[in-house]
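Question: does this match?
>
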Amino acid sequence: MKVTFSKMEGLGNDFMVIDATRQALTLDTATVRKLADRRTGIGFDQLLLIGKAADPAHTAAFRIYNADGGEVEQCGNGARCVSRFLVEAGRVSQPEFILETLGGDLQADVSDIRRVRVNMGVPSFEPARIPFVARERSVTYELDIDGQSYEIGALSVGNPHAILDVPDVDIAPVSELGPKIEQHPRFPRRTNVNFAQWLDRTHVKLRVFERGTGETLACGTGACATMVWGRLAGWLDEDVEVALRGGRLMISWQGEGKPMWMSGPANRVYDGTIEL
């Protein structure tokens, strides 16, 4: 069968976006992996599959598949791209609308199509909700890897994240340490791994090793999780610019019990059709 899609990106975090409300489509792990291959397929960090929302008051739902074929709960850069896709497809009649994901509902604001704003929900810190194996909640946890102890933050922003404080992200051991933390047994559903360098109270540099994908140029949920943990640690203010390798995101968070707001670009690269 022939499937139409859009290739989109946010800060270099790239996606294959498929509108399954207008074409019947079932995806399995092998198909997603084949499409994700950058030599023989389309190539992407995540595939975003748009479907009908369970709540008729909401605009749409979307499912998120990593390049390894695994389905995950949340994707910040993907949410901005889906929001722009829906606007350009004529599926929304007002600048603010609700999207459904496995990680919870997201409020999108496309008042400025060049810089989409998304309410990413309220972060979770209880270990069981991350999920992370720990006896009680803490700002920091000790994680043993190959006989060495690392101090990390752990929280959920719709998907699990670990955060490490590093002196220089440019030389951080992302490719070596990232997969070991991602698959650490204390993260039963694996985790995204954020390597953060704190520049001042309103600026952070960040590299992210994403669960099921590897290091990407940008990660919206990683930027949110890192900013939130930095706030909890007392290092950051309410509005922070997070610099990733693909560009910059603005993250705002007023404190515990409050939602996170993320704003950044979302771009359409090209539209295409592929035979599955």
Summary: The domain at 127-258 is CATH 3.10.310.10 (Diaminopimelate Epimerase; Chain A, domain 1). Residues 62 and 246 are 23 Å apart (CA to CA). The chain has two domains: 2-114+265-275, 127-258.
